[in-house]
Amino acid sequence: MTYNWQQLDWPDFKYDLLDAEDALFHFAEQTGHVTGLLKAMPEDVQTETVIDLMVSEAIKTSEIEGEYLSRQDVISSIRNQLGFNQTPESIKDKRAQGAGELMTDVRKTYAEALTEAKLFEWHTMLLRDNKRINVGVWRSHEDPMQVISGALGKEKVHFEAPPSTRVSEEMNRFVRWFNDTAPGGVNEIKKAPVRAAIAHLYFETIHPFEDGNGRIGRAIAEKALSQTLGRPVLLSLSKTIEADKKSYYHALEQAQKSNNITLWIHYFVNVVLKAQEQAVSLVNFILKKSKFFDRFKNALNDRQIKVIRRMLDAGPEGFEGGMNARKYISITKTSKATATRDLQHLLEFGALLQEGGGRSTRYILNI
After folding, report:
1. By mean pLDDT, which of 21-25, 73-77, 84-88, 100-104 is the weakest?
2. Rg for the chain, CA atoms, rounded
3. What is the topology classification, in CATH, of domain 4-285?
4. Do 4-285 and 300-365 agree at the fold level?
């Protein structure tokens, strides 16, 4: 197998945007739409929306790599970094703390040129408590850096990155390319999803760190999107990718076989478009959620508020299986009689809608 980086035209990527033009047009439409929706929101709701998207990205980019973070710790980390907590909240999960720090820094520094020092800083944020690897430096081990699947003795090598001796040179060239393709650069790429697609593939091919390459690579894609759009992007790439990881890894593996990357560009542009559409859906949901609380806040007791918030936390997809008396009791630690009375009350004044009957009765938000 000859990989893209071993070929004579590396890294002279070639691509045709003909099949991606519709998706690029719709992305531009959706980006304008979500920006307009956000501007129309009250400031506190804007903040909630941005934090929700950052939390989603932090959690899902880790889940792609098989790490499951504490959602509350990620929220606390992001709120601490943004200065919303007068007294910083303590965080038990240090991986969540690092993921939150990375998401915040990517957003705060999106307009700045990319540097080797910034990449080392991001790597340190993510993995500073990992004692098994060298953090904040390029990999230097002599063993091949391979992407492998399968049981011991039956391994399948999906990709092998350039040897460690080439990493420094390759990354110098990558950083130069990234900055040259930014707005105003000598080789500016004006279509944000296209630049993000190439940046992600280019970085993942070099695979410069011992660990954390996927997460850093997706942060680079977000930075590319934000720079080219001229504002922090409002979407979660990783949420969309994580929903179909198999397609993501397959597209990446195929793209690393050739420097004609038309199919990869088409795949990634559609991922970015879907992520933007999901963000529009989330923003609309948060607007509805805000109006919902304004309508019912004076009629809810503390137990009902707790349950409603738990249902709303599920987002636009809805609370899995709906609410019922058993779940209500579990969340509020109350009696069955109180749970039944509270649910009936919520139903009567229109906060909930009933589905099914008897033992199959469940409730959904009237939102």
Report:
1. 84-88
2. 23
3. Fic-like fold (1.10.3290)
4. no
The letter for the amino acid at 295 is: R
Helix then strand then coil, in percent of the chain rounded to 5, is 60, 5, 30
Tokens of 59: 């959690």
DSSP state of 363: E
Q: What is the mean pLDDT of residues 254-280?
A: 97
Q: Where are the domains of the chain?
A: 4-285, 300-365
The class level of CATH for 300-365 reads mainly alpha
Structure tokens at 350: 């229109």
pLDDT digits (tens, 9 = 90+) for 202-238: 999 999 999 999 999 999 999 999 999 999 999 999 9
The pLDDT of residue 204 is 98
Residue 88 predicted with pLDDT over 90: no
Res. 139 pLDDT band, cuts 50 70 90: very high
Q: What letter would DSSP give residue 150?
A: S
Residues whose CB falls within 8 Å of the CB of residue 300, separated by 6 or more in sequence, listed in order: 308, 346, 351
d(CA 289, CA 309): 10
- 50 contacts: CB under 8 Å, gap ≥ 6: 232, 234
Half-sphere exposure of 92 (CA within 13 A, CB side): 4
